[in-house]
Amino acid sequence: MGPLAISCSVIDNLLTFSIDNQTSVTIPAGFPVNTPIDFSAETASNSSTVFENNNTKADLVKDVRLKELKLTITNPTDKNISFLKSIHMYISTNNSDEIELAFLDDINSTSSTITLTPTSEKLDKYLKAESFTLRVKAVTKETVSENITVKADMRFQVTADSF
């Protein structure tokens, strides 16, 4: 009699769901054209509530990635994105290094909304934190004569074990 082969298959009970987060940033007036502008906004994370609503918790989260990041000008209401040449957004927490979150170069839009290209960075530690900081580095191609408020809508995809 040969060796007995025993096969076991374990199916992970993985959950996949989205976390939506929103913040506003102000692009300050008066910066020279073609000069990088740096500004940031601290954002509260609502992830612990979303984790609970999806029958999981932070320590069971396996993977968080940015799926979409849209920027929309909310003030002044008649302004469009055409003043921007490029924009790069970075994420950090008090305990985590800053990494690039999303970007868009060579912007050629007359809309009030643009969608940035997400990086493939793993964002678990940032979304598990109570808050995170978004830093924006923008280059303008037109003079900005008044402050511009931009709303950032972020959608993160989460993969986690259920409890």
List its salient traits:
7% helix; mainly beta; 163 residues; 2 helices; 8-stranded antiparallel sheet
Provide an overview of this structure.
The protein is mostly beta strands and 163 residues long. Helices cover 7% and strands 53% of the residues. It has helices at residues 47-53, 124-128, and strands at residues 14-27, 36-44, 61-75, 84-93, 96-104, 113-118, 131-140, 148-161. An eight-stranded antiparallel sheet has the order 1-8-3-6-5-4-7-2. The longest helix is centred in the N-terminal third of the chain and has 7 residues, at 47-53. The N and C termini lie far apart (42 Å).
Low-confidence stretches: 7-11
Output the strand order for the largest sheet: 1-8-3-6-5-4-7-2
Order of helices and strands: EEHEEEEHEE
- Counting DSSP E segments of at least 2 residues, the number of strands comes to 8
Measured as a percent range, the helix fraction is under 10%
- What does the main sheet amount to? 8 strands, antiparallel
- Shape annotation: elongated
Radius of gyration: 20 Å
Structural class from helices and strands? mainly beta
User: How large is the share of residues in beta strands?
Assistant: over 45%
Q: What is the average per-residue confidence, as pLDDT, rounded to a whole number?
A: 90
Count of alpha and pi helical runs = 2
| End-to-end distance | 42 Å
